[in-house]
Design a protein that fits this description.
The chain is α+β, with helices and mostly antiparallel strands and 153 residues long. It has a domain of 83 residues. Helices cover 21% and strands 24% of the residues.
Length: 153
Amino acid sequence: MRAGERLRPLPPIAFPVVVTEPRTVSRQALIHWRGNRYSVPPELAMGTVNVHQVLGADHIEITTTSGAAVARHRLAEPGLGITQRTDQHVTALETIALASAPPGRPHRRKERIPPGTAALAAARALTSPTAPTATVIDLAAYEQAAKNRNTLT
């Protein structure tokens, strides 16, 4: 620095630092980033994408390895275990899942079946005012015997 020369003023904003890391997409079309999961299009499942985060920003951007942007998510607090999916990614994933499912009736466990007559009769018996009351056992005697004992013998 020469005599009489002054330093330039600081820029109005800090230099943007961008953290970029590759991530492998799971079979469920999710990537893991700082303790949370974020969705990508299901076509990228089991592939590699890049996650870009500008430090101080409130979002991340996910791109293919060639640089095409495929998703942008609001950044969740690190380590919360949150899964963020966009509506488009959910719809695309459901479409692929339904297309690959066998035709016909879904598996019985997936259906919502209302309770039958036997279950309704059992519920009425348990909740009726004339239902027999259960015997309540007072555990105070056992508590007294267990006090000041250090062993099970």
